[in-house]
Please model this.
Amino acid sequence: MLPRDLKPEQFAGYPPEARRVVTNYLAILQQLPPSFVPGLLRELIDYDFKFPAERKAHEKELSYLNSLSAGQRKDWFRGFAEIQLSPELEMFDWVKSPAQFVEQLSAHLWSTHQLDAFRRASNEYADRLRSAALPDPPTVSRLGITVIGQGVASYDEPLFRKLRAHGAYFSRVKSEDGLRVLLDAVAARARTHPDAYAHWYIDGGEATDHPPALTCVSYSALEPVRAALLRKMQTELDRPGMGPEALRTLLAQMHPSDLGMNTGNDGKPGDEVLDRFKVKLLTEGSGTQIFSTSFAQWAAREALRRAQPLTLLVRFAPRQRQKPMNELLSSVPARPELDGVGSLIDADMGAYYNWLNQQRLPGAEQASFLVWFEGHSQALAIGPSLPRGTESTSPADLGQLLEWAG
Amino acid sequence: MKAASLSASNPKEVSRVIARTRRDFLRSAGGMTLGSALLRSPWARAAAHTSKRKVVVVTFGGGARDQETFAPEGQENIPHLMRELLPQATFFTQVVNRGILGHYVATASLATGVYETINNFASLPPQSPTVFEYFRKGLKRPSSDAWVVAPSNGFNRIGESSHRAYGPGLGARVILPKHLLTAATSGRGNDYEHLLRDNYETPYFSPELEGNEFELQQLEMILKLSVDDFKTHAQTLSSPDELSVYIARQLMRQVSPSLLWITMHDIDIAHAGAYSLYVEGIRRTDRLCSDLWKTIQSEPEYAGKTTLFILPDFGRDSDDDAGGNGFQHHRTGDALSRTTWMLAAGPGIRENVVFDRAMESTDLVPTLGSMLGFSASFAQGKPISELL
Model:
């Protein structure tokens, strides 16, 4: 099927908002290359369950595409138009199953050595779109906070090595009530700028008390969902003919209710947007089902990419220890032990990734970031008014660091 | 539409980052000579008797980035390569893999000298002749002279291709130590399944074994190793790659193949997203490479006549590419995930030399052909002149 053959009735199976958006812009979709449109539909089919920032970005993108002249459109999409699809892909019903199409397209691009060309086309498109349809700046400068090393009594290796060049390192931070200070600061921002999904708290363990205004995701709270998911995966893998592609397709189609999440079914108001986000963390993330550090990092990455929060507090917790082979061979099954130092190293890298992902959002030059070794005196702050690559041995508390970074 | 984007995903910026990384390569390894200043290799003079030559290839896998290995900030993770092997080796800083970045298909590409397009997760033979087939057919060597030690079921078919001019009966014997251990300890609990999961790219899936499988019963006959001894020794090892190296050493002692290919994969735990485990895998692989080098030097059948090649099959995604998630995967196809390094050591190989030019991972097989005296006629790569 080719985009030019698209008709409104083909989208009857889409959720209502997705259907509305697609049919509104059908005329422009019909004029775009077949290597591009299914990828866009993969995003739009979930429109009803997207965060406000994502919805706004999609509307902006479609509206801008609609404003291009035929010549401009040809120029913008030249790279995509040169991608050769296989007959199987051309026959594929990508309107109904755009995600599966994209998965098969990816395999096709690799095996036909077109991946680099597709990558170039994607990058050029993203660059052009970013320049032409400038994203809205945040209503207040963003703040990212990452707390690492929960439960680690001491650690002698240098921390924050990848971040030091970008900010100021503090070695005499007052740690008393540190987490409470940080959560209060996040809550205060949520009160002042009460936008939906604008202030997040992600915990790799059990979430500590926090105001309901914060969008919260925690590894512990999702334990029954993780268990249900692993059970389902095992059942599916036992079926004859099940392979990695089929499993991925199945995971991509899972909804909160498939995993026992009661979105609005228990009398309380549901939040299907957030519940679907949580399910995707477990079905699309790699390692998120078994390691809490992987979960926290991936959740932060996806929250930043999708919801573009104004404030994000990520607290890493110890993950289970990966047992060496000899222990696995000899020991009887026991409760998983925790790996505090390994988790600290994971989280230190995770903090760097949180900062990198925050810097990919609009307003990066005004954004600030703080990483703190929980319960200890080491922290690093990055902000427009803080000197880079510096160290301070002066006593300071976390509230002051936030103030200086902001 | 979400597309890979960021300042450094701009091709010019990526090139700049790579160029800087490459210039910084081995900056702290004082005393290394820049290879471009040197004349031809002394290999031709030293390698008078190719019939006695042996080659061991180790893939430093699965997938390691420069910044955790030979780039200045990564060198702390590879002390054995830096201090023991590099001073005796020729080092190439830019080995580019232009093929599919999946471990089985990339290793198959390394072994054929052609960018293979087989399904990474299916039990399929490479489409082009492998180095083992060129070696055995070209030099009329028996099946005992070419072996592969590989991590997962998917690698069972890597020993010989589906190519009509080569194929069944002309390839390498393949041994899968984890599979042997599974057979040797069948009926154990869930913990055990976790250890023996087939691979990290699709940790919940293991392809069915097909092809010429090395059976558990052959342990005793070929490796002179009882099943009980094998199991007992496995219990002293900390990882599947340690088990692979243990089996490789048994092979070297008992069978002494002239062409031995060992594929490591502990590093690929990175797919689970835990950075500390990824780095731990690199450190372990570094130590295991050193152990293999020591074995080569101490085993009479290998000492003084063996060339060792160590190279990752490819890198991993850059931190700067918004389309990926840094070290965790190798999915973006960005320049850093395609570009890696290679180390060669042994008689006739220049010591303590670095070459900064770009070469391709498909160049390995023609190079082995030139060294050992067979023609790799279907390979796409070119012999690496600096090693010949």
